[in-house]
Design a protein that fits this description.
With 153 residues, the protein is α+β, with helices and mostly antiparallel strands. It contains 3 helices and 10 strands, in the order βαβαββββββαββ. β1, α1 and β2 form a beta-alpha-beta unit.
Length: 153
């Protein structure tokens, strides 16, 4: 079974031992797109290679997502099986409270690659968020239909 290609919304990890790298991708994808999917047990080519899933694998992964990515976000962790009987993990996630960090560092997604945000990029990220927030708050308080000759009525 092939799940396609990695892109700005999808990341593949062939092993559950690559949790740290997977969570860095979650942070990067959230910061760029606000939603995405992470798969464990899938090669970079998109072919499902399968995993040996222990009794507590899904719980440990869920706890790691909760503990290591800040601020909180929504996610589901599901065990999937191919027709050939190979098991893999699918993590769907979304969040709009950017920026998100993984293990105390901030990442941003570029095509199918995760890059650490340097100080300049992180500052620009915060400034653009502040601008969007201020713009949103202004229009929430004073909607355009409430304007007449530049004054709020």
């Amino acid at each position: 079974m092939n799940l396609g290609k990695e892109n700005e919304y999808i990341e593949f990890k062939k092993s559950a031992s690559l949790v740290k790298e997977g969570l860095q991708s979650v942070s990067a994808i959230l910061n760029k797109n606000g939603k995405g999917t992470l798969y464990f047990g899938v090669k970079d080519s998109g072919d499902v290679c399968g995993l040996q899933i222990g009794n507590d694998t899904l719980n440990k992964l869920s706890q790691e997502l909760f503990n290591q990515i800040k601020p909180s976000f929504f996610y589901t962790v599901d065990l999937k099986n191919t027709a050939e009987g190979k098991s893999f993990i699918q993590v769907d996630f979304n969040g709009l409270n950017t920026p998100y960090s993984a293990y105390g560092r901030y990442y941003l997604r570029f095509h199918d690659e995760d890059r650490i945000m340097d100080n300049d990029l992180l500052r620009d990220f915060y400034l653009s968020k502040r601008k969007d927030y201020c713009h949103h708050q202004f229009y929430r308080i004073a909607r355009p239909k409430q304007f007449h000759t530049g004054r709020i009525l």
